[in-house]
Amino acid sequence: MAEKGNKAANTTAAGGIREKWMAGWKRFESGHPKLAKWVYQIFYFFVFSMGVTIFQYLVFTFMPHLLGEGLAGTEFMWPQVDMELFGVPFTWSLLGYEVLTDTSTGAVLIGGGLGYFISYEVGSFLAQCINFPLQRNITFKSKGNPVYQAVWYFIAWVVISLICNGFNNLWMPIAAVYVSPAVYNILVTFITGGVSMIIFFFVFKIIFPEGETEKHREL
Questions:
Q1: pLDDT tens sequence across 33-87
Q2: pLDDT-derived band of residue 178, with 50, 70 and 90 as boundaries?
Q3: Does residue 1 surpass a pLDDT of 60?
Q4: Per-residue confidence (pLDDT) for residue 219, from 0 to 100
Q5: Is 205:136 a contact under the CB 8 Å cutoff?
Q6: In which region does residue 203 sit, left (phi positive, over 0), alpha (psi from -120 to 50) or beta (all else)?
Q7: Directed axis angle between helix 181-207 and helix 146-178, to 10°?
Q8: From CA 119, how far away is CA 124, in angstroms rounded?
């Protein structure tokens, strides 16, 4: 009986906190409608983006191992520009990743080559398939043409992926020498995710314009 009483009290307390929070939010929303909309959108955008970032991390971490050393040791890079930073020679590219090898044994390391490129693109694409409907329907509450928006979202994803690939290929070969694979994948995920999040937020503001809901209701 005591446990049931405690659970009921906790439920009541949680309900009271929620009601106070919602009442406070409604006052803030009515007093500052534009700011409230930005706060709402940024909050949900961040939550969903972090969720798909974790999903990408899992793909980046485990899929290269599933694809094996064969693909990890297969070079796929375009264009190829020889560079050296912090004493580490490497080849920069816009597409693809350099094959990683152990400096002492010469053995192929999982985390580079065609295997990592496939894992990166698959993880990134699947994450956007999850992210798009959540952001469209919940964060920005869009009523626009979903096909039109999806096409522009896909174009934005391609452009952003190229930017992130080019940026990653400047620091990833160096990080592979100095940090462990787990830390390496965390860096790839969150640096890529951070850059993508900033760009994607403003892309969403464009393809999910303000006033869509009101126009839809008028029709």
A1: 888 888 999 999 999 988 998 898 899 889 999 999 999 999 888 898 888 888 8
A2: confident
A3: no
A4: 39
A5: no
A6: alpha
A7: 160
A8: 8
Give the count of beta carbons closer than 10 Å to the beta carbon of residue 42.
12
Helix (H, G, I), strand (E, B) or coil at 26: helix
Alpha helices per DSSP H over 73-145: 113-134
Indicate the length of the chain as a whole number. 219
Q: What is the pTM of this model?
A: 0.75
From the list 217, 160, 205, the residue with the least C-alpha distance to 41 is 205
Tally the C-alpha atoms within 13 A of residue 55's C-alpha that lie toward its C-beta: 17
**Sign of the CA dihedral 75, 95, 57, 183?**
positive
User: For residue 161, how far is the Cα from the chain centroid?
Assistant: 11
The pLDDT value recorded for residue 195 is: 76
Cis bond upstream, residue 79 (ω within 30): yes
Cross-strand pairs, 81 = 92
- The count of other CB atoms within 10 Å of the CB of residue 88 is 15
The residue with tokens 């439920």 is 11
